[in-house]
Amino acid sequence: MLNTPNLNRIKFLIILSWAACLTTGISPLQADEIIDIEDGDVSGLNSAIERANQSGERTFIRLVGDGAYSYQLPENSPPKITGTIILDGKGAVFSGDGSTALGPLLEIGEGGSLELSNVVIRDFESDQPGTSEQGLIIVSDGASLSLESVRISSVDTHSSGKSSGAVVLNYGNIQLSKVRASAISVVTESQYAVVFMNNLGEATLENVFIIDGRIDAPELPAQSVAAYIHNGPFATLNIRSSTFIRETSPSGTTSKLLAIERTVERPGVFREIAMGGTMILDLGCTFSENVVSTGFNLISTTEPCPAKSNTDITGFYSNAARFENAPQGGPFVVLPPNSPALDRITGDTYTCPNRDAMGGLRPKDGTGDGISQCDIGAFETSGNTPLFSGGENGLFYSRGRDGHYVTIENTRPNEYLIFWNTFDQSGNQGWVLGIGSRSGNTILADGYYQTEGILTPGAGADVNTSEMVDWGSIRIELESCLNGRFIYDSLLSEFGSGAFTLDRLAYIEGLGCLD
């Protein structure tokens, strides 16, 4: 039997833990149907998309965490999406091994909707010139696409003319959040090419990071222009809390953030193009007088987009940012202690969203002056708490086993409270509590099980009527912020012993996690 001091200690920790606010992402509860796809099963994924198209229901498709899905475009391209699909990649990789065409990898047709999260898209290459109607990702008129926590890297395309060669072609509505793109290049036969997105519809970019987008025009004279984003004459573009950087470019070429197109029939007519809380390094704009600043932009370049707000910062700043690579997360930006972007933005929700491009929380006090304000750009320098410095806190689950949830709470220095919402071998609901400590990347805890209690509506439960018994041992091995392993050995025959994988479901508000 658990002694009274430990029982009271557990109850106190329970109260503390449930007071924390958990932030969650896309939930299967939002869907009418759930389809799980095995690792590498591209054919199964294509079939699931076709099934969703035909069903007319909101379909949730789950991939295997850190799985690998290889495409040889156009042979095994997914069907055009005309249904409503939520696709959670769980860190899976879509790779273009052997592809000879740009795509499409994803095409959303009229009336279709795709919410894609937690995937890496990389290693796609086209060996033939593309047209303005091609792209790796295509959103048709009347379609919508949401990309969240998506990385795109090592994409090489060919352009045959103006506004062609882009990775993303949008005629509909596209929302990009926590999207990072790097090492995208275009071989062009024209003096003008689009690198990342050709926007002919409505686009919103929040916490987007693009670095090292470039063109190669070996047969052309100098001053070929690569635009990260081309905005059509009647397209709407909204950029906030993002970072755009030119790291390298072949000699004789010019890289620009925006190329904004006027029409011959209606010269000078534009839809709104707004930008706020955004960092631009060594990139200019064409027709940049049409960009409306919503404030708090840092434009460090010799060819700036003109500032139109008294909160914007312009001029060349060599100390604005430093590039680094996360162990498992690709390139990102760190702001040095003297960066003019640190703690620059007052905390309005428009230019200061809740999270940054790495999933870190805003605002944080990057300068240490006691004032918590947002940093300019896609990354909050102090926005993530490292694993085992608070980042381990949060909610985990076992994929494919709904109803099994593990909560980890670091309540004191090297003291951990564990909740395991589970079932015994007879299917009876059971809550296992644990108190333990950490050694390296492993949390070891003694488990306890409540066998009886009383609920009094409108009043607290009587401590004397709550009974807890020793349950056994719990071992949690966290491999990263997202994944781990849960190992248990119970003293109670109805639970036995076993092990299962852990996948992150939610973080603790105010902490986040960084590997």
UniProtKB/TrEMBL annotation:
Keyword flag Signal: yes
Keyword DNA repair: no
Protein name: Choice-of-anchor Q domain-containing protein
Taxonomic lineage from the root: Bacteria, Pseudomonadati, Pseudomonadota, Gammaproteobacteria, Chromatiales
NCBIfam families assigned: choice_anch_Q
Signal sequence range: 1-31
InterPro entries referenced in this protein's UniProt entry, alphabetically: Choice_anch_Q_dom (IPR059226), Pectin_lyase_fold/virulence (IPR011050)
The organism of origin for this protein: Elongatibacter sediminis
Keywords for the protein's UniProt record, in alphabetical order: Signal
